[in-house]
Design brief:
heterodimer, A: 327 residues, mainly alpha, two-stranded antiparallel ribbon, 9 helices, 2% strand, B: 95 residues, 0% strand, rod-shaped
C-alpha cells in the first residue's frame, strides 16, 4: 500500500501542474487528469483486492457448509418418524438451501472477478504512473521541468498582459486625441503585439507532454472502467471502453478538436428523445406506379432490373354448388 | 386419536435440526459480514436475508417438532392413565 500511496501522490502532483496550466490556455479541451478522475480512482483504490479475495474464500467455505446443512436437513426429513408435515417441510427447506448454495457460489465468483479487476487496475496504475514519472517513455520532461516551463510561460504571459494593457491605454489616448488620423498606426501596433504570443515555446512543449500524458491516462481509464464495472459501478454505467475518454489538450491558436462522444445512459436517453420511431405509413388504396405489377394478369418489370414479368392470371374458382331444395 | 409421529424420534430429529439451525445462522452472519464492492452489496444482503429466512423456517420446524412430541407424550400418558383406571374399575366389578 505504501507504493500505491506514492503512485497516487505522483498523479496528484501532475494534476496540480495541469490545473496551473489549464487557466493559461485558450484552446479549450480538458486536462488529461482531473479532480473527478482522482476521486474516481480514490474510490476504487479504497477497496483492497486482497480483502475481496479473502472474502471470496470465506464465501467458498460458506458454500461448502451450506451444502452440508442442506443435505443434513434433507436426511433428517427423509429419515421418518417426524410426521409427514415436518418431513415435507424439511425436504422443501433442503431444496431452498441448495438454491442458496448456488447463489453464494455465484457471489464468491463475482468477488473473485472484482478482486482480479482491482489487481489489474493497481498494476496499470503503477505502470502508468511510472511512465509519467519517467516523462512518458523517454525522459522527455520531469515534473520539475514542467513546473519550470510553467513559470516561464506564466512570466511571459504576465509580460504580454502588461504590454497588451499599455497598448490599449495608448490606443485610447490616440483615439481621444485625433481620432481617425492615428487609427492605422494603432491598428498596426495592436497587430504586432498580438503576434507575440506569450510563452509559445514553453506552452508548445507542455502541450506535447500533456498530449502524451493523455495517452497514458487512456490506459488508466480503461482499467478504471473495468474495475468499476465489477466493483463499484455508480461512476460509469457503461461497459468498459465505451466512455470516459480523455480530452485532448490544445495549445493556444490550435484548432479545437470536436467534443468527444461519450455514450452513456444520459446520452442514450437524449438520443431516444430526439430519434423517435417513424409513424406507420398510411394504408394505400391504390397501387402506385413504382410498385411494379401487383395484380394478376398485368405486366411489368422486376425492381432494379429490366427483366419483364408477367403475373399469371389466377384460375377462376369453381362455381359454388347449388343444392336444389327438396320438393 | 392416532399420533403420526414417534415422540422419541421426533425429539432426536428436533435436536439434529436445532444444531443445523445454529450452523445456518452462522453461515448467514458470515455472508452478511462478507466484504464486497458496492455493486455486489445488494446481492450479498439478499443472500444473507434468504439464509436468515432458512434459519427461521428451520427453527420453526424444530419448535413444532418439540411441541408435537411433547403433546404426543402427554397424550400417551393420558391414554395409559385412563387404561389403568378402566382396568382397575373392571377388576373391582369382577367377582
Amino acid at each position: 500500500m505504501e507504493s500505491l500511496a506514492s503512485v497516487l501522490a505522483t498523479l496528484r502532483a501532475w494534476r496540480a501542474v495541469y490545473e496551473r496550466w489549464h487557466p493559461g490556455r485558450c484552446g479549450g479541451g480538458v486536462p488529461p487528469w482531473s479532480a473527478a478522475d482522482e476521486a474516481r480512482l480514490d474510490r476504487l483504490t479504497a477497496t483492497d483486492p486482497d480483502e475481496l479475495a479473502a472474502s471470496a474464500s470465506r464465501l467458498d467455505a460458506v458454500v461448502a457448509d451450506l451444502g452440508e446443512i442442506g443435505r443434513a436437513v434433507g436426511l433428517v426429513g427423509a429419515g421418518g418418524g417426524l410426521g409427514p408435515v415436518a418431513a415435507g417441510r424439511c425436504v422443501e427447506l433442503a431444496t431452498a438451501v441448495r438454491a442458496s448454495v448456488a447463489e453464494a457460489s455465484g457471489l464468491a465468483g463475482e468477488l473473485r472477478s472484482a478482486a482480479a479487476a482491482l489487481e489489474s487496475l493497481l498494476a496499470e496504475l503503477t505502470a502508468q504512473a511510472r511512465r509519467l514519472g519517467e516523462g512518458v517513455d523517454g525522459g522527455y520532461r520531469s515534473l520539475a521541468l514542467a513546473y519550470r516551463a510553467l513559470e516561464e510561460a506564466d512570466r511571459a504571459h504576465g509580460a504580454y498582459r502588461v504590454l497588451e494593457e499599455a497598448d490599449r491605454a495608448q490606443d485610447r489616448a490616440d483615439w481621444a486625441q485625433d481620432g481617425a488620423e492615428r487609427a492605422p498606426a494603432a491598428a498596426e501596433r495592436s497587430a504586432s503585439v498580438a503576434g507575440e504570443l506569450p510563452g509559445r515555446g514553453q506552452w508548445a512543449g507542455l502541450d506535447e507532454l500533456f498530449d502524451r500524458h493523455a495517452g497514458v491516462f487512456t490506459a488508466l481509464r480503461a482499467a478504471m472502467d473495468a474495475a468499476e464495472w465489477t466493483v463499484d459501478s455508480p461512476g460509469c454505467a457503461d461497459p468498459p471502453g465505451r466512455s470516459c475518454h480523455p480530452g485532448r489538450w490544445l495549445s493556444e491558436g490550435a484548432r479545437p478538436a470536436a467534443a468527444e462522444l461519450v455514450v452513456n445512459q444520459d446520452y442514450a436517453e437524449r438520443v431516444w428523445q430526439v430519434w423517435q420511431p417513424l409513424p406507420a405509413p398510411p394504408a394505400r388504396s391504390e397501387v402506385s406506379p413504382g410498385d411494379g405489377p401487383m395484380l394478376p394478369g398485368t405486366e411489368g418489370s422486376r425492381t432494379g432490373t429490366d427483366t419483364g414479368v408477367r403475373i399469371a392470371q389466377l384460375a377462376e374458382p369453381p362455381p359454388p354448388a347449388v343444392k336444389r331444395p327438396p320438393r | 386419536m392416532r399420533m403420526e409421529l414417534d415422540p422419541a424420534v421426533a425429539l432426536v430429529g428436533a435436536a439434529e435440526l436445532a444444531a443445523l439451525v445454529d450452523e445456518l445462522a452462522a453461515a448467514a452472519v458470515e455472508v452478511q459480514q462478507a466484504m464486497v464492492g458496492s455493486a455486489a452489496i445488494e446481492r450479498r444482503d439478499q443472500l444473507a436475508l434468504r439464509l436468515g429466512r432458512h434459519v427461521v423456517e428451520l427453527a420453526m420446524v424444530v419448535s413444532d417438532l418439540r411441541r408435537y412430541a411433547s403433546a404426543s407424550a402427554a397424550h400417551e400418558r393420558a391414554v395409559a392413565e385412563r387404561a389403568r383406571e378402566l382396568e382397575f374399575q373392571l377388576d373391582a366389578r369382577l367377582p
